[in-house]
Amino acid sequence: MSQPSAAPSGLGDGAVDSITSTLLEMLQGVHASQVDKDEDDKIEKSLRAFGLASGAVFVLITIAVSLNLIIAHIRAFERPELQKHVVRILFMAPIYAIVSWLSIHDAPNAEYWSFLKDCYEAFTIYSFFKLLVEIMGGEDEAARRLAKLPQIGLLAPLKYFMENWRMGPPMLLNCKYCALQYVVLKPISSILSLMGGAAGFYTPNLWAWSNVWVYDFIVYNFSQLFAMYGLVQFYLAAEPELVNWNPIPKFLCVKLVVFFTFWQGVMLSILRDIRFYHGMAGYSGEEVEAQLQNWLVCLEMMIASAAHHYAFPVSEYSSYVSLPDSSTGEGVATQAGNPKKGTLHNLKSSVLPDDVITDVHQMGQALSRRKADNGTGATAPTSGDGLSQPNVAIDLQTASV
After folding, report:
1. pTM of the prediction?
2. Residue 321: φ, ψ to 5°
3. For burial by CB atoms within 10 Å, which of 4, 193, 264, 321 has the most?
4. Among 304, 300, 226, 303, which residue's Cα sits nearest to residue 265?
5. What residues contact 285, with CB distance under 8 A and at least 6 apart?
């Protein structure tokens, strides 16, 4: 009786081993992938927790340091026309810090939070210009003092395109309009960017002509540079009248915060584009850039709030007399404030932008009147004694005469 032939056990065992090995490798790969994902999640959570915690510490310190100086000013509100602009400038650091931290905490809505910061930035630049004017005794007195100073030339690039702005009302008004246009254009630009983002036409840092961000970037930079141009031009024109008020630290506190934070963001974008850093732990490169920028601003505002104590001490505003005229040595009496009215009253008079709204309205009237005069061939009335009147209509071209 014949025996049944044995199955080729060697082949069967090899197939089983191969299948088993393949399954084990697949399971190990799945496990390793899960481990990597878990590690990425841990890193992402750790980085986010560190950013939020350290940023919160920076913000709390900024608020405490800033409020200390703000409260000191509004309690000793002896020169309201000066100190209301100082208080507005001092609020810049905590507002920047809070908005930046909220942008880390609520990253999907960061653009909406940034809208608040952008609007306050324009408000701060104009408040600083108004502070310089009020230091000289107000617009009328500032124009009178400027008219007595030597003529200075325009800075580049405007000096290549127009004649010098005549010292006096023309210099004051043109510098004022340089700063004031930013107050108008920046909120409009921010609103358009939010609308463009909602419609899908606005992508930050994407250089494409179909992207609304490119046009917003161009308009924003020209408007901001024009505002800072007006500040620098006015400071150079009025320097003999401002030198005793330690203007350089004040100017740097405003200029560095505005310019440095903006160009810091541009530099981070460039570094990302050249692969100096990249996405990590579940964040894209753009998200890492935005979070890093916001965290750095939180840190920098803590430093800025401390610098404000040196640049804007309360002791500078304890006198009721403005700076003495550099030509006569006489000061101009200013209206004394009433600290006894209370902290809330003084704070309210500082933060309400009614004077800025009035200035914007008057600028619109002046430009409209100038346009109408150009159409009829009439000459717009100008006066060195009535700058607060909406009848003054001096634009960049006619002010050089």
Report:
1. 0.78
2. -115, 135
3. 193
4. 300
5. 272, 277, 278, 279
Q: Which residue is it, tokens 């800075």?
A: 155
**Amino acid at residue number 166:** R
DSSP state, residue 333: B
Identify residue 170 by its one-letter amino acid code. Answer: P
Q: Which helix (H) or strand (E) holds 179?
A: helix 169-199
235 within 8 A of 247, measured Cβ to Cβ? yes
- What is the pLDDT at residue 199? 82
Question: 143: Cβ–Cβ under 8 A, 6 or more apart, which residues?
Answer: 168, 169, 172, 384, 385, 387
pLDDT tens-digit series, residues 188-213: 888 888 888 788 888 776 778 888 88
Say how far apart CA 205 and CA 30 lie, in whole Å. 37
DSSP 283-325: B-HHHHHHHHHHHHHHHHHHHHHHHHHHHS-GGGG--SB-PPP
> Cα separation of 116 and 124, whole Å?
12
For the chain, what's the residue count?
401
Average pLDDT over residues 173-189: 91
d(CA 389, CA 194): 36
What are the residues whose beta carbons fall under 8 Å from the beta carbon of 133, sequence distance 6 or more?
139, 142, 172, 176
Kind plus residue range of the DSSP H or E element containing 345:
helix 343-351
User: How many C-beta atoms lie closer than 10 Å to residue 227's C-beta?
Assistant: 27
The answer on pLDDT for 254 being more than 60 is yes
Judge contact between 350 and 88, C-beta under 8 A.
yes
The pLDDT of residue 68: 96
